[in-house]
């Protein structure tokens, strides 16, 4: 079928790239060792600190988020180290597998993929660890596979209550720039992120924000690395340069995306995502369907995962929405395949974009013969009005 207008990319990353960012990247490639590049490099390295809310260094890799996961492990841990992780969903499970491949001994606290990290379990596990064998607590902030956001500030307080020296390593690949996150204030040691979700860029950049404690750990850990080595990066970064060819045009985009986030204001960006998320949940409730996340204090501002009624295939529904309305919705991953669909409401999403997306979902439910009530779209509009009135 021929298409008009733009495709609705309503998956929870990659998210749509704003026109402003696309135009900013439409530039000739410059000499990455020349004087012009140093200015760009310094600007983006400095700008990242504002977005990660840190005074410390942020390293930018030409990689996907998965690369930044690996960078975090190889720079801070040693083979045989014990770490504490939580089965919040697909991404936590993948990060765990990666750690295991590096010879890390992972204690993986089981979960039902409907809740975030339980700070009380963090405290109990660390208090039990009298020999201080656990070297890190590794948490996925926003579990993109489930639409559940873990309470990282509370996890920090739990670690402090146990008076435990473990590093706190946090994946914010889908939350940075969409959900409130504070690297310094929350005492996070490494914040891992990626370009293509809340940062509104194309895929291709990975980030690690590094605390002093994490940097100290990197001086004595024993895992081998070369491409990912923090010290190799930080030396030329001091003048805005990189040890190998950076993704120059993505950095032009990054400079623009950071400017957009700071112009709107981070608190306003986070509040907008909360409003869009609340309206989406109002729609789901209006349809008589179920939000996957079971804990209201952990509802994701980034995406909403919707449980398909028994006997209906979420992927068949998503195919109809794509064919009929040219909208991509997120699939259920691994054990949730076919059982849920995910609505992304992150990045440059605004109220009318969201209403378009929710209309497509409601029409798609109808077209796919999925039992539901009418009125989800209306409930979302009502929620957005109420959100505006304060
Ligand atoms: C997308 C995502 C990843 C994987 O990032 P890539 O850029 O695909 O490597 C990891 N963790 C979370 C929470 C994600 O949302």
What does this structure look like?
The chain has two domains: 244 residues, Aspartate Aminotransferase, domain 2 (3-Layer(aba) Sandwich); 124 residues, Aspartate Aminotransferase, domain 1, CATH 3.90.1150. With 390 residues, the protein is α/β, with parallel strands linked by helices. The chain is globular, with a radius of gyration of 21 Å. The longest helix is centred in the last third of the chain and has 21 residues. It starts with 7 loop residues before the first strand and ends with a helix. The model has no long low-confidence stretch (mean pLDDT 97). Helices cover 43% and strands 15% of the residues. The strands form three sheets. Strands 2-10-9-8-5-3-4 form a seven-stranded mixed beta sheet, sandwiched between helices. A five-stranded mixed beta sheet has the order 1-13-14-12-11, with helices on both faces. It has a two-stranded antiparallel sheet with strand order 6-7. Bound molecules: pyridoxal-5'-phosphate (PLP). The site of pyridoxal-5'-phosphate has 11 residues, from helix 3. Pyridoxal-5'-phosphate (PLP) binds next to helix 3.
Q: How are the SSEs placed, and which strands pair?
A:
Elements: E1 8-10, H1 19-25, H2 35-52, E2 58-61, H3 65-76, E3 82-86, H4 90-101, E4 105-109, H5 119-128, E5 134-140, E6 142-143, E7 148-149, H6 152-161, E8 167-171, E9 190-194, E10 206-210, H7 212-220, H8 230-237, H9 248-264, H10 266-286, E11 290-291, E12 303-307, H11 314-325, E13 327-331, E14 340-344, H12 351-367, H13 376-389
Parallel strand pairs: 1-13, 3-4, 3-5, 5-8, 8-9
Antiparallel strand pairs: 2-10, 6-7, 9-10, 11-12, 12-14, 13-14
């Amino acid at each position: 079928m021929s298409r008009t207008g733009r495709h609705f990319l309503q998956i929870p990353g990659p998210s749509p790239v704003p026109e402003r960012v696309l135009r900013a990247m439409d530039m000739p490639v410059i000499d990455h060792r020349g004087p012009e590049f140093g200015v760009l490099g310094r600007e983006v390295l400095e700008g990242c600190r504002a977005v990660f809310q840190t005074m410390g260094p942020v390293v930018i890799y030409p990689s996907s988020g998965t690369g930044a996961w690996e960078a975090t492990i190889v720079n801070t841990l040693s083979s045989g180290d014990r770490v504490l992780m939580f089965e919040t969903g697909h991404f936590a499970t993948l990060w765990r597998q990666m750690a295991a491949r590096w010879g890390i001994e992972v204690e993986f606290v089981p979960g039902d993929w409907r809740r975030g990290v339980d700070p009380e379990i963090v405290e109990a596990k660390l208090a039990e660890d009298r020999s201080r064998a656990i070297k890190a607590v590794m948490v996925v902030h926003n579990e993109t596979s489930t639409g559940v956001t873990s309470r990282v500030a509370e996890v920090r307080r739990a670690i402090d209550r146990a008076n435990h020296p473990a590093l706190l390593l946090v994946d914010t690949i889908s939350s940075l720039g969409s959900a409130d996150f504070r690297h310094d204030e929350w005492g996070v040691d490494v914040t891992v992120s990626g370009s293509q979700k809340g940062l509104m860029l194309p895929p291709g950049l990975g980030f690690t924000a590094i605390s002093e404690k994490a940097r100290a750990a990197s001086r004595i850990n024993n895992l081998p690395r070369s491409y990912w080595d923090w010290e190799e990066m930080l030396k030329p970064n001091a003048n805005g340069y990189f040890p190998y060819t950076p993704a120059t045009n993505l950095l032009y985009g990054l400079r623009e995306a950071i400017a957009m986030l700071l112009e709107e204001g981070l608190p306003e960006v986070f509040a907008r995502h909360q409003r869009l998320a609340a309206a989406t949940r109002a729609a789901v409730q209006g349809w008589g369907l179920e939000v996957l996340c079971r804990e209201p204090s952990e509802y994701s501002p980034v995406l909403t995962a919707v449980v398909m009624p028994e006997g209906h295939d979420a992927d068949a529904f998503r195919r109809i929405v794509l064919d009929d309305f040219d909208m991509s919705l997120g699939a259920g991953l691994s054990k949730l395949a076919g059982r849920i669909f995910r609505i992304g409401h992150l990045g440059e999403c605004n109220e009318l974009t969201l209403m378009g997306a929710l209309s497509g979902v409601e029409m798609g439910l109808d077209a796919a013969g999925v039992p539901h009530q009418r009125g989800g779209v209306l409930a979302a509009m009502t929620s957005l009005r109420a959100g505006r009135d304060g």
